[in-house]
Amino acid sequence: MTKLERWAPPLPDLDLFERRVHRLFEDLGVAQPFAPAADVYESDRELVVELEVPGFGEEDLKVEVTDHTLTVTGKREEKTAETGRTLRFKGRREATFERRIELPARSDPEHTVAEYDKGVLALHVPKLDETKRKEITIAGK
């Protein structure tokens, strides 16, 4: 019978060290800012933007559209430790982000719909109907 043994990294404190160094660079303003992964696709009727924002609640997110630029911002604050509990490991951090996406000229940002489900924010931006050409006759005097 095979015996299953728990694997231990050769340097168990390496992960903790990496997290501390990363946090130090964040505090100094040198670290690369957090930006959620995004997928943008379109159909005949709409443009869809999906952002992965795990750990953020609906109340932590803000969506704005200005001059055909879609801006999604998020802010997650650190939770303070509850009394009577001893914190053994802290992996969650305060995080803020801002993601901007240019919308096509034919989009209708006034009727954008936002949905949030299982850590994914989906924004549906309808497209305007294509403008039809109309030939205009020039009248002489």
Largest sheet: 4 strands, antiparallel
The topology string of helices and strands comes to HEEEEEEE
Task: Return Rg in Å.
Answer: 24 Å
Helix content: 10-25%
Hey, roughly how much beta strand do the residues contain? 25-35%
Looking at the overall shape, the CATH architecture of the domain at 33-79 and 92-126 is Sandwich
Shape call: elongated
What structural class do you assign from the helix and strand content?
Answer: mainly beta
Give the uncertain stretches in residue-range form.
none
| Biggest sheet strand line-up | 1-2-7-6
- Total number of β-strand segments? 7
The oligomeric status of these chains comes to single chain
Q: State the CATH topology of the domain at 33-79 and 92-126.
A: Immunoglobulin-like
Overall pLDDT score: 82
Number of helices: 1
How far is it from the N-terminal to the C-terminal residue, by CA? Answer: 103 Å
Q: What's the CATH class label of the domain at 33-79 and 92-126?
A: Mainly Beta
